[in-house]
Specification:
It is flat and about 105 Å long. It has a domain of 31 residues. Helix content is 50%, strand content 0%. By secondary structure, it is mainly alpha-helical. The relative contact order is 0.03.
Length: 103
């Protein structure tokens, strides 16, 4: 029940002949028959065109991102400040309770 069932390995149906490697001669100074690719002319490359509307959209998007990130950071800072203030108030109340209990 707890023993794993191992799959049986299938037997090969045929044998492939071993690959034969043919030696090649290397001649020094011979160049490869491949020619380097010609550079693409600049006129066929797509140019980035920045119109006034596109620039305005980019500035507006960047401003929105900065405002959102700033709001998130300020809210996190406010949360930390509120938590610290509440812990300080709790510490003062506990200290006064303990000092009254000793009297």
């Amino acid at each position: 029940m707890f023993r794993p069932k191992l799959p049986t390995m299938p037997h090969p149906t045929g044998t492939a002949p071993p690959a034969v490697v043919q030696p090649t001669t290397v001649t020094p100074g011979a160049q490869s028959p491949l020619a380097p690719a010609a550079p693409v002319p600049a006129s066929t490359r797509p140019a980035v065109q920045l119109t006034p509307g596109t620039a305005l959209a980019l500035v507006g998007g960047g401003t929105a991102v900065v405002l959102v990130v700033g709001a998130v950071l300020v809210s996190m800072l406010l949360a930390v400040a509120v938590t610290a203030a509440s812990v300080a108030v709790c510490a003062v109340v506990l200290r006064s309770l303990v000092s009254q209990h000793r009297r």
